[in-house]
Design goal:
The protein is built from 10 helices and 10 strands. With 258 residues, it is α/β, with parallel strands linked by helices. The longest helix has 15 residues, at 5-19. The protein is globular and about 60 Å long. Bound molecules: S-adenosylmethionine.
């Protein structure tokens, strides 16, 4: 599929303004492949027509954003963050937690099962920009390869083994799902979904430029209660950004007194 410079600019500008992802030149092939897939699905032959469609049709606009975002994740990814929290939180408090780029659900479910195991009281909001990821998270069905880091006792307690055509898959049990509400939220343009004691915003800002990160960090700060924790991805950092968080340890920050 040919993509002219102006078409590339239109599409990459949409992606930047909507999801903060900077599709610089090196990402041309990725953009082409993802757009080609949408053209096949929508049975549209011309790119011009597709660009017009996403400008007018919200559903296809969201499908396009879904197609260009990167959703890779797995259970117990960077679990040292959760281990830190489990040691720091007080079981007598009811915690409000936000998993702010939850992809297909592995992150919020990993956090939830460890909090249940500890006997913590909590509710969680798990959100993503991608509708298809939210749908996958709500379905809560996973190929067992994604769970290789889950300790065996928790695997047995919180997951159901698939049988027959679902052999090789597991499903998260209802008692875990009951603590989590899933919804679409765009970190860049949407207003805060509430005030939380802990926010996980991991492995998403890595795709943003500094200007976008600055905007998102400001919004996350406002969404945290005093004394609340912000957890970002291990490959991410707040260096070069203006913020009022206190650094606790790599990728863990607190709002207010530590
Ligand atoms: C690599 S996954 C990270 C999943 C999980 N947090 C983890 O660390 O494994 C990045 C997720 O960020 C989502 N995303 C990208 N831009 C976003 C935005 N502007 N607002 C909310 N989510 C976004 C993507 O759809 C994707 O599911």
């Amino acid at each position: 599929m040919g993509l002219s410079d102006s078409q590339y600019k239109v599409l990459s500008d949409i992606v930047y303004s909507e999801c903060g992802i900077n599709l610089h030149e090196g990402k041309l092939e990725l953009l082409k492949a993802r757009v080609a897939k949408r053209l096949r699905i929508t049975k549209i032959n011309s790119l011009e027509e597709y660009i017009n469609l996403i400008k007018q049709d919200t559903t296809e606009f969201i499908n396009f954003i879904d197609a260009v975002s990167t959703n890779h994740t797995f259970f117990f990814r960077e679990n040292h963050h959760c281990e830190f929290l489990l040691k720091s939180i007080d079981n007598s408090r009811h915690l409000k937690i936000w998993s702010a780029a939850s992809s297909s659900g592995e992150e919020p479910y990993s956090i939830a099962i460890q909090l249940l195991e500890k006997g913590a009281k909590f509710e969680m909001f798990a959100s993503d920009i991608s509708n298809s990821m939210i749908k996958a998270a709500k379905t809560a069905l996973y190929y067992k390869e994604k769970l290789r880091l889950v300790p065996r006792n928790m695997l047995i307690k919180y997951f159901q083994k698939g049988r027959n055509k679902w052999e090789g898959y597991v499903r998260v049990k209802k008692e875990v799902m009951n603590n989590i509400t899933f919804g679409r939220h765009n970190l860049i343009v949407d207003s805060s979904p509430g005030i939380f004691n802990i926010i996980f915003c991991r492995n998403v800002m890595i795709y943003f430029d500094n200007e976008t990160k600055q905007k998102v960090i400001g919004k996350l700060y406002k969404s945290l209660a005093e004394g609340g924790y912000l957890i970002i991805g291990a490959a991410e950092g707040l260096v070069g950004l203006k913020h009022n968080f206190k650094y606790i340890k790599p990728s863990i920050y607190i709002k207010g007194a530590s």
